[in-house]
Amino acid sequence: DFGRSSELAFVVEPSDDIAVQEQPLILYCQVEGIQPITITWRKNGVMIVDSENAFMLANGSLYVSRFQRVRGDGSSDEGEYDCMAQNHYGLVVSRKAKIQAATMSDFHIHPQNAVVEEGGVARFQCQIHGLPEPVILWHKNSMPVNTDNERYTLLPKGVLQITGLRAEDSGIFHCVATNIANVKFSREARLTVSGSHSTVYKDPMILVGPENLTLTVHQTAVLECIATGNPRPIVSWSRLDGRPIGVEGIQVLGTGNLMISDLTVQHSGIYVCAANKPGTRVRRTAQGSLVVQAPAEFVQHPQSISRPVGTTAIFTCVAQGEPPPQITWLRNGQILETSDHIKLKNNNSTLSIYGINQTDEAIYQCLAENSAGSTQASARLTVLWADGLPSPPQAVRAETVSATTIQVSWEKPLQNTKEIIGYVLHIRKAADPVEMEYQEAVSKSTFQQLVTDLEPSTSYSFYIKAYTSRGASKASEVTVVSTLGEVPAMPSLFIKVINSTAVQATWEPSIKLGQHEGFKLYYRKVHLAQYTGPVLLASNVTAYNITHLDASVVYEVKLLAYNQHGDGDSTVRFVSLRETAERTVLNPPCDCMKDEQNNKTSTTGIIIGMHIGVTCIIFCILFLMFGYRGRLLMCKNVQEQLSTPQIPRSQRSTAGLVLNGAARRDRDDRDLNGKQLDMNELERLFPASPSQEQQDKGMTSAHSPPAPHEDTQISTLPLDEFSIIEEQPDPLPKPPRGGSPPAPAPDHGPANEG
Length: 754
Known about the structure:
The chain is mostly beta strands. It folds into five domains: 9-101, Immunoglobulins (Immunoglobulin-like, Sandwich), CATH 2.60.40; 105-288, Immunoglobulins (Immunoglobulin-like, Sandwich); 301-384, Immunoglobulins (Immunoglobulin-like, Sandwich); 387-482, Sandwich (Immunoglobulin-like), CATH 2.60.40.10; 494-577, Sandwich (Immunoglobulin-like), CATH 2.60.40.10. 13% of the residues lie in helices and 40% in strands. The protein has five helices and 58 strands. β18 and β19 form a beta hairpin. The longest helix has 52 residues, at 592-643. The chain crosses the membrane at residues 606-626. Residues 392-486, 487-583 form the Fibronectin type-III domain. This is Immunoglobulin superfamily DCC subclass member 3.
């Protein structure tokens, strides 16, 4: 009811039906609205004239006395019927009702004889076409099959499944198909159950998988899947897209058939049946697609509206369905044809009527239709027109002011001007459709308007309406005028010095400069008034070399773009060649051939130099590695020499100690950091004894008496300060206990300094 027109609308519309041969048929149609209302019927778009066979009842319904699929003259009562209702507001057409004759064909698949071992699975099938869909029942030995037996599964498409076969299941089977048109019986088939249940292992196998189905919402889908194997396989279902099947309306028939009740569009997809061997990953699969269609239905109905003359009326009609419905518009029951002022947009969902007048007043219908069904909704357009409205504005003129501005002027209407509250100027590019039009409002005392922000070299159309509080006048005459052309924009200019007597001017490609015919290039010495040029360049040229220049002066370079409307603004750059000339004097030109040879020689020299450099680096690394290793070996030799029994410290040469101490003091200030690093390294290589600290103190004082039986120890000195003192070849006498130290031996100087 939300979308109905109060003046005329359907309460009941005819619906699709299946008629029985030689039986009466009634198609219902009920309309409400402002009387008088006239109702007529059409079949396949042709008006139905009352006759003995078909005539309209008092309530507007159509009565067919004896429905016939084919009459003697070759005509048929099958077809698409619609109901039309009309009053003085307009005309509406109902949805199309598809009428078909009830039929039933012969069976095209009959059940077949089968021999199956005990415990196995038997399947019988019969198929027959008919309208409406025949109901198929099964008989065993001329008696209806007991559907209470859970081992017997009857599927809607004429399939009988028997699982866990037993000897008593043997017999003769046939099916019976029934609809309002007829009843038919299939041929008979014998089932023989042989032997006893086998224990031989058999891989799972799917005998029959799901078939592809196309159904409508609210129907029921049955996806068949029957599997065999030993042990008996487990049948499971899933969707190929990974989405859950759900539980609402889902039921398993027999041992693995999937039934989905009350279908929705969301049930569409590819379903996979899997037969799994229990306790293993051995499986077999089969798949089938399910397509669920939905008849067209409206999400948004068109609404009846009232609009003043000259304004725009917009109707919106949004429908959904699966597949997506096609939308068609009718005007008073006839297909609506588009024009300059009637436009359809958004896949026909939006109807726009521009500059409406009294002839546009009608009932507009939106028909939404797809393969699953159709629907319609209507709305009325009322055009408001009041007596005494102003006549159209007069003498509309448009004059070009510039490339982006046009001046529009007019004179007031000739009639009914007292109630005018203002004017509206309608503006549109002449090449654009009507819906691209825009408006500018003007006060009632103004008779001209400056329209700005237009495009150069473009034609525009203008017309004007006068408005009152009761509505608008008719449109004035349309005037068309073009804006002036525009000179090109200023190009970007860059100067590059080539040498002491030449520069190169470059600029952006012409595509960024608008419409133009080419470029003009000028240049001069800055102290002169006269330019050299213009140099005319084509629009596709983006660079020009200026040669034979004087290196001692500064030059000015100017570039502009031009077209048929004149010259654009110029871009100026200044350039000096003096620095280039000075560099040329200091570095005279080279012999190119010689330079080329030198370049080759230099390249070879660079490669050789790189090889020499890499070789030097490798030798340096090896030298450092072997040198470090030698220092470690020397330290080991020193340790071995000093670890042998040595003379007491009191008999050691004090001169050597003083020398070592002096060397140590001399190096303290020069290499404190490196010394500390070497100290740590030596301590790591030659760990100190527990009395190391006391021995260090003994080394710093030549007069400290040694402890009894104390052997000489190595002090923790850096390697680069370590000295070995050459000793007397004759053995020295042992110092007496507690006696004074002997006189120092002559100092022969260090035999080797490490």
